[in-house]
Each structure stands twice: as C-alpha cells, then as structure tokens.
Amino acid sequence: MKKRxxxxxxxxxKSPCYLVEESRLSVCILDINPLQRGHCLVIPKxxxxxxxxxxxxxxxxxxxxxxxxxxxxxxxxxADFITQYARGRRIPHTHIFLIPTFSKDPLDRYFNALEGFQxxxxxxxxxxxxxxxxxxxxxxxxG
Length: 143
What we know:
- This protein is α+β, with helices and mostly antiparallel strands.
- The protein has two domains: 1-102, HIT family, subunit A (2-Layer Sandwich); 104-143.
- It is built from four helices and five strands; from the N terminus they run αβββαββαα.
- Strands 1-2-3-5-4 form a five-stranded antiparallel beta sheet, with helices on one face.
- A hairpin with a 7-residue loop joins strand 4 (81-87) and strand 5 (95-101).
- The relative contact order is 0.13.
C-alpha cells in the first residue's frame, strides 16, 4: 500500500493548509510547525522528492514564488534575512523553507554554530601537524 504524501494532499485540496500564494507549478503555505513567525514552505505541485530533480520550468517557478514571498516577509517582519533551505528527506516531497531570521535568534545561532564547526575543522586538523606539536611542546616546557 502506497503511503500518502501530506504535500500532495495539500496541493490536491484533500488536506487543509494556510495558503500564502499559488503559482502555476508551485504553492506557498505557512508551516504548521513554525520556527519563526511567517515561516513558509514553498512546494512544487508535482510530487518530486528532491529539488534538483525538478525540471527547469518547475525550478524557475518554485524559486520565483519563493523570492516573491521572501520579499514580502522581509518587508512585513523587518527580518535581517530570510533563511532558505530545501528538504525532501523526512517528508519525501521537495519543500523549500523560508524563515524570517534575525541576528542571534535560535536559527541564526544554529547556522553560525554550523559555520563555526565547518571553519573549526581546519583549525583542529592543523593541531596534528608536527610543527604544531613542536610549538606546543616548547610553549608548555618554557612555561
């Protein structure tokens, strides 16, 4: 038995949603589990798991809709920026998150921490270099 897709049910009108805007190939809805006021999802009407599997026309339509809504979110909520990222793993139907984000809010801190981890990996990898071991040994021995 095929598992039902919540986003396909929304697109077909079988499930309710908070519709923000609809285009020919995509819909934008409010996320029912928002991370921030104004958190939206942009979804292609065709069931497709990952965004990179969409046609050029679908991609253009989806991201044009995302851009229009993002501009409205920026204007309404005076956000520092709109966090945008694509999903399709947990719910296997592409959906683009649009989240008004403010400096130092939980989402901003999360992505800053992630970027810090990315940058920190290079620093940590250098700690194992012989040159660094010699420097540290000298620092510790010299007190």
